[in-house]
Amino acid sequence: MKTVLITGFEPFGGESVNPSWEVVSGLDNAIIGGCRVVARQLPCVFGESLAVLNGAIDALSPSLVLAVGQAGGRTDITVERVAINVDDARIADNQGQQPVDVPIVADGPAAWFSTLPIKAMVVAIRNAGIPASVSQTAGTFVCNHVMYGLLHKLRDVPAVKGGFIHIPYLPQQAAQHPGAPSMAAETVRRALEVAIATALQVESDIAVTGGATH
């Protein structure tokens, strides 16, 4: 049976939970699209996060890799289009590192685009009754670091799709950030199940608008 690797992060930035791991951990050993899902937690640490991710990829030889991260303040499931080759941390990671304007891969390309059918995934998630959109930036913190490193690793393995999804706060987190949007864990889980199934089924992405004006 083929394997799907899905990752979430440990808490960071003073939060007691990270919605990505809270949801992703529940998908471990699920069967989606005839594939076994394996969940792994990544540290919210520059460098170490990629070491853990790369080790999991080498051990599992997955057909699909989907990394998931928290994006507090976002209102919906956001499927990332692109990762850029820079670490520029507004806050320190969980080991106190705060790189500024440092390339993730020396002499690497400026950016890597997701190899997932991102627009088909967004449409499928919306059709499941869950708000979703294409995101044009994964930031410059550890999430972007992981997305860029993932796609750089997979550059010579076109048969393996890879990409990143950002999710909102959980309600209990938003309660501590008055006015911040949130999404229930059960809803996020359903969105990720749909995203994985779509990514496994769709070979060529659909041509629908997913752009932004700012």
Automatic annotation (TrEMBL):
One of its GO terms (molecular function) is pyroglutamyl-peptidase activity. It catalyses: Release of an N-terminal pyroglutamyl group from a polypeptide, the second amino acid generally not being Pro. Keywords: Cytoplasm, Hydrolase, Protease, Thiol protease. InterPro entries: Peptidase_C15, Peptidase_C15-like, Peptidase_C15-like_sf, PGP-I_bact-type, PGPEP1_Cys_AS, PGPEP1_Glu_AS. Gene3D superfamilies: Peptidase C15, pyroglutamyl peptidase I-like. CDD domains: Peptidase_C15. Removes 5-oxoproline from various penultimate amino acid residues except L-proline. Belongs to the peptidase C15 family. This is Pyrrolidone-carboxylate peptidase. The gene is pcp.
